[in-house]
Each structure stands twice: as C-alpha cells, then as structure tokens.
Amino acid sequence: KSSLVEGSISKEISPMLVKEDGSLGTVEGVSNVVCINTDYNGTLILEGEGAGEGPTSASVLSDIVDFAQGIKSHLFNKPFDDLFDSTNNNEISKRCYYLRVFLVDQKGSMAKFTSILEKNGISIDQVIQRGDLHLKDEKNSTPVIILTHPVDSDSINSAFSELIKTDLISLNPIFLPVLKDN
Length: 182
Fold this sequence. Notes:
Elements: E1 2-5, E2 8-11, E3 31-38, E4 42-49, H1 53-68, E5 97-104, H2 109-119, E6 124-129, E7 141-148, H3 153-164, E8 174-177
Antiparallel strand pairs: 1-2, 3-4, 5-7, 5-8, 6-7
Helix pairs in contact: 2-3
C-alpha cells in the first residue's frame, strides 16, 4: 500500500486481508492488480497478466545484463545509496485488524484476553468463538477470531507481545491488518 502523506510517499509492504468479492480479492492465477484511488476519478483498476517462471527469469536476466552494461536507470532516478528508509511510522493511520488466537479452554481465559486488548486500547468490532472446532493437536484450545475497530499498529504489537508471554494461548496469535475500502 502506498499513499501520499504531507508531500511524502508513504509505503507499506505486508500481508493484508481484503474483501473476497473486491477488486483485489477476485484476482486469480498469476494476474496482477493495482488499485489507484484518486480524488477526481475515483478508483482506477489496472489488471494484467503476472509473471510465471519464464517471464520472471527473462526479466531478471535482462535487468542484470542492462545493469552490467550501465544502461539501466536507477530506482526513482537515484542511486540506491541515496535512497533512505523512513523511520517515522506515523504515516500509517489507524486501521482495523483481524486477530486469531487459540485460547486455552479454561474458565476466565476470554476475560483475561479481552482485558489485554482493553489495556492496549484495542476495541472489538466482531468476535467469533468456536468451541466446537479445534486443530488436530490443539484439543484443549478454543479458536477465537476478532475484528477490531481502527487501532494503531503500536497497540496491536504491544498486545501481541503481552499475549505471547501468558499461558492463555496454545499457539502464537495471528494479527493481520485489514485493507480499508476507498
């Protein structure tokens, strides 16, 4: 995800959940899709065939040959050494998260779990607790899936760090941002 924030480009590369029936959720096979949200034209969707083994290999070899011959331009017309990584994470706004945990099946574990979320400023939008479903090796744990209200990544990371230090869960939790519809 990239966006223009206060005259600078904000970029993020991470797994994200998307709507199954949305432009990104319906991509099949090796297709690539780029969604561009504009102020004047709404959302523009560019879709094309992605790369398989052959096209990828040819492209990589072509880039290596071009670079070796000095005819390849630098990324953003700047040498790699002149590029910098932003250390300011504030450009990524609050967003909803998908959380999946396997809570130990004991009295009070859900209350303790939601207490950790509350302590870290995380508000629950939706929750699914399936006591009848278990992983093969996790018979004493209950899967719980939560969608949060918008929250910053520091709060999610803090809750994650606190949760993995407890005896409330049997597997590491999964926390994924949900891509906001524009």
